[in-house]
Amino acid sequence: MHRMERHVSHTNKRVGTTQVARSYVSRWLALLAALCMLAPLGGCGFFTSDTKDTPSPVQSASTGPVSIVATLNQWGSLAERIGGDDVKVTSILSSTNVDAHDFEPTSKDLNQLSKANVVLVNGAGYDNWATKWIPSNASTISAAETVGAIDGDNPHLWFSNEARSSVARELFDTLCRLRPKDKSNFEKNYDAWKTSEKKLENTMKTFRKEHSDLTYAATETIAAYLMSDMGFKDETPKGYLQAVQNDSEPAPSDLKSFQTLLKDREVKLLVINPQQESSTTDQIVDAASTGSDPIPVLKVTEQMPQDQKDLTGWISSLVKQTNDLINSEEDAE
């Protein structure tokens, strides 16, 4: 990972007398000493953004558990899997009752970030609120950067097998660098995680083989990566999808196209985000539910539900739900 570092340039000036030079140096030494007393980070380090309300120092990663702060609980759970007993993970967003797009960190959240040895963010514009508070001497892992995603791309990267694997590898490499003496523990944890993720991959592969012509529509793009990994084709009307991506209300004609798509049973599954329900999504769900042959509805939240303790386990449960819904839909045909 590459990290921007703050560089301070110094200008040397020639003075006319030895006395003036000594006075000049003394003043700067006094100022430097004062700054070090006020600096929030050990070794006179500074935050990457300017702030006067500075939190407490970052603890060394050489002793005690490595402190990891994740912006999202799904990524935090992955950090716990890789780090095991050698890490202490704090997840800032950990409730399905919170809208991640409108989230504002509290002073407690910022204080937790200030003490992190490792900060794990999603990136791709999803959690920009965190980046300006990352300590300058903390290691930063961005899920988006591991797969080349940028602002404007679908930010729901935790639903992607590629992103999960890339972040897990980055966590393993970072922890081994920070705590080489515990490398064998990290290797054991990483191998165990890869086994469970491989099992999930195989389950999705079997699902793709057993079902053909898989189609779905969604009220938003939250599960697009998951649906793609499972072999589904997105048939959401383009006009509606564009409106959602622009955070605007769909035009009446686009909503009607969506409703017609569902009433004519042109897709096998509808995906909704219960965290973003509205009168528009209610109309869409109603269209899927009408008639004697309703389209099954899969509810997918942005944050990992509290009854799920592990990212791979959560994705596995969604795959199982999807499989059950599709099987029941096909049995009814």
UniProtKB/TrEMBL annotation:
One of its GO terms (biological process) is metal ion transport. Pfam families: ZnuA. SUPFAM superfamilies: Helical backbone' metal receptor. Its main location: other. InterPro entries: Bact_metal-bind_prot9, ZnuA-like. It is found in: Cell envelope. One of its GO terms (cellular component) is cell envelope. One of its GO terms (molecular function) is metal ion binding. Keywords: Metal-binding, Signal, Transport. The keyword Repeat does not apply. Transmembrane segments: none annotated. PANTHER family: HIGH-AFFINITY ZINC UPTAKE SYSTEM PROTEIN ZNUA-RELATED (PTHR42953), METAL-BINDING PROTEIN HI_0362-RELATED (PTHR42953:SF1). This is ABC transporter, substrate-binding protein. It comes from Bifidobacterium dolichotidis.
